[in-house]
Amino acid sequence: MLSYILRRLLAMIPTLFGITLIVFVIINLAPGSPIEQKIQQLRFGGGIENTGGQTGSNNGDSAVSEEVIEALKKQYGFDKPLHIRYLLWLKNLATFDFGESFTYEEPVIDVIVSKFPVSLQFGLVSIFLSYLICIPLGVLKALKDGSRFDHISSILIMGMYSIPGFMLGILLIVFFAGGQFFEWFPVGELYSDAYDDLGFFGKVGDRLHHFILPLIAYMIGQFTVLTMLQKNSMMDEIKKDYIRTARAKGLPEKIVYLKHALRNSLIPIVTGLGGFLSVFFAGSLLIEVIFNLDGMGQLGYQSIMERDYNVVMGLIFIQSVLMLVGNLISDLAYVVVDPRIDFS
User: Fold this and answer.
1) Would you list the domain boundaries of the chain?
2) pLDDT tens, 236-277?
3) pTM of this structure
4) Fold of domain 114-337
């Protein structure tokens, strides 16, 4: 097992190299570099000396001198060829230096860390609640397959799955937070202005009050997939010979289902366990925008739109590492659930 883990860790190096190389080339070849956007700000911002040596005004006719453009290229590192810039990025990566954000004008790692708590909270809560609810519900649906409970619950969760998360978020705001019907929940941020003055239970209640609507929109798709996956996996296990053998031995139904069938039915479910590392970045962009949550999804979108290359590369690298490590953890979880699996 140790040799397998080492092989997987070594295999991550070329994988990360390939991912970062492709992303670096794509974003640098895309039209609208940070230099071009900065030049537009200078042209329309006024107070910039144009090519004729006169002071530009706010009429949008001002031009930026070649000296200013060259200075901007040197400042942002665009005075070097593309491959040299990538090699320099890799060199800085050895010290976990992702450079400075063009937009925020501070280290990229500080920008990411400042947005991290929002995605962390929603990621952990959503994956915990999803597994806590979906596994028992899927098992119950499998044991009551064909019953009224199974039919009604299937209609409900399939209906939930058919509604996009961002559309559900809009409906929740309109009906429960927009004031047109009810104004039961707040929108924006994760706590109220008086949060620091509240006691422990008051803070917990305030957090829950702000969490409910975006969390519902965030979980709805994942909730349905996990429930049906657990149900189908459990039903497959119930039909196997070893379950019939356990029944023939006279074991109670509870032991047959919960001790024997359940453990093996969890094998497909553990595939997603490694995702607990990448949930920090998994926040839906549209949901964050709709609920005005300043998390990782919105940071990534804004960075792409503003051509903040350093932030984009930092996010891609960190998320790629977490994804690869998460896949390794998923493989190891297989061994825990089913000792018959051996990767050595």
Assistant:
1) 114-337
2) 888 888 888 888 888 888 888 888 888 888 877 776 666 666
3) 0.76
4) MetI-like fold (1.10.3720)
